[in-house]
Amino acid sequence: MKLEREIFTEPDIDNSFSIERYDDFVFEEVYSQRLSYHRIQLIESGEGILDIDGKSFEISNNEVFLMSKGQIYKFENSSIISGYVISFGDCFWERAPKSASNCKAVLFNNTMAN
Question: Most buried residue, 46, 62, 80, 114, by most Cβ within 10 Å?
Answer without folding.
Answer: 46
